[in-house]
# Entry
Amino acid sequence: MIPELLREKKAQFFVQYASSKNANFYYATGFKIPDPAFYMIGDDGTDLLVVHEMERRRAERESRVKEIASLKDLGFYELLKELGDPSIALSQTLFELLRTHGGRKILIPPDFPSFLSFYFRERMEVEVVENPFSRMRAVKRKEEVEKIRETSMAIINSFEYALKIIRKLKSCEELRSEIETHLFKNGFIAEDTIVASGLLSADPHNFGRGAIEDHIIIDIFPRSKEHGYYSDFTRTVMLEKNQDLEEMLEAVIEAKEKGISMVRDGVRAREIHETVCDILEERGYSTLRQKSSEGFIHSTGHGIGLEVHEEPRIYENKDILRKGMVFTIEPGLYYRKIGGVRVEDTVLVTSDGCEVLTPFRNFVRA
Amino acid sequence: MIPELLREKKAQFFVQYASSKNANFYYATGFKIPDPAFYMIGDDGTDLLVVHEMERRRAERESRVKEIASLKDLGFYELLKELGDPSIALSQTLFELLRTHGGRKILIPPDFPSFLSFYFRERMEVEVVENPFSRMRAVKRKEEVEKIRETSMAIINSFEYALKIIRKLKSCEELRSEIETHLFKNGFIAEDTIVASGLLSADPHNFGRGAIEDHIIIDIFPRSKEHGYYSDFTRTVMLEKNQDLEEMLEAVIEAKEKGISMVRDGVRAREIHETVCDILEERGYSTLRQKSSEGFIHSTGHGIGLEVHEEPRIYENKDILRKGMVFTIEPGLYYRKIGGVRVEDTVLVTSDGCEVLTPFRNFVRA
# Structure
């Protein structure tokens, strides 16, 4: 994919400058590093990571990159002494590296930092392209699927635990803390877990707080401490009878199940989103397709892996589902005077359908 | 600080495009948001945050920014329909916003994403400047100090707990898990806590694994789940007699104490680093000043707050210590055939000295 891109764009290198908090950088290098480092991949087989001297040996052991260089090797410190300004010294060091490797044109990802791209741009051709690793990451390798499956199972365990204790707890904060600690002990970090009850649940991004009322949206999306892969799962738990909410819940369950039934290799993501909207509109709810600010006001789903939100998007776009993609299907309905409901599964596309990685009954009472 | 910068550079706005994972963005906006948003601050009093419609109400409630606009208000969706490409539609929407506010020249931080800066640069003057919020963040407000103090106390508690159980455990992994779970239950997230024993401790960035041997470096740097502030603390625990290591440990303790004694408002960071190097060299150890790859091979310290590493740097640079700054002093010595030792405290600069926020005895046996 990258060689083709380089040829098409008549460029010699695709480069990244980021820390491993950047999922594309981590995916490309397989190297966990807290501070930014430089990575270049070339049409001539170049696969080179530049780190500080202190990280060199660890990079040689732990990264999947062919060649490691340190800034010291590249003369950064002499240049820093001469120029005084670390960001110019770094820019010049990396530019010289590109130049000595025959770089005349480079490709950079959209989030490439401007201090470097502005320096490069004055000295060579620079073009911003979608990060090819984003697209590569959308289709998961087998071992990545296993990692997401592991995180999915941990979510289901923590949700079952939550259901056992939910009636003993008073506040959303307590329940969130119980779920997150349960996950943490098992090796998963969940933050901002949505545990939203009552009318606060009408805001899909509100994490929730205060008393546990008639119903509660629990949306859990942890990542593994060990390998970094996320999964994502939501259920709406009914604690008391509430006809409006239960009808909304039935509608989103129907929409989710119909959406999941459509998933297979080759299907357009857009069709799934449109069908989800159709079902909810047929049931009398408004959707973002009608520019409504209540009802179904977000997309149907998003890819998940090293990031909570990644490719593909299950929305009004052109993404085509491919075998090995992993994403969520998560219709919700939100009304300020009633509250919100949402159900969400993470699914894996197979050649003739999909596998739900977060299997759990849809309608949950506690 | 920002008005002065804008006047000096003859620019109308300083702008950021980031999520709240970016500490400068979070500091500027006070808004927790998982996906990138646009923030602009102007010489005309403009203080404006642009978010998706879905985040608008939450932004109005939770952010500290004066004015909130949504992409919908700004006509982004019409433009997207017309242009098809979301990144061009976004760039054009934000450029129009800047232009209608009278922007002719803008300032961007070094990490500003290139897809936007390249678009802007073709249409207006754009200059990369050090992020002024980085400098503002170096000097902590009172409430920030209290947050770091809270995290510091949680570290000390978890370290005391670690000392109680260390003899019962066999592996570095178990000890790391115990420390991190202890912190998590109390509301703090620690990841990559360094629990390094034996010769692995000779690599300052090795997290450690395997058997607990004669000594162990424990370096704990969690952040609060609630407010996001970090603190940082290291002790080297001696489990068996080892003359080489104990002499190294005495040297780094002396260097750390001397370094701390020099901290006060107005002192140059560089002097502290040089003194730490002097002490270690006088004791016969090599330092990075001599371009050695063993001995003391990292800087003396770093600011800490919303990031683990932030301004000021206690190193060969020009930073001047100011009242309210919070940073680490952490000399270490690393020899591949002996192992490593390090001691580290987080300190707060006061007008006539400093306060150690992580008070604990220096020489620890267990």
User: Anything to note?
Assistant: The CA atoms of residues 116 and 199 of chain B lie 47 Å apart. The first helix of chain B runs from residue 2 to 9.
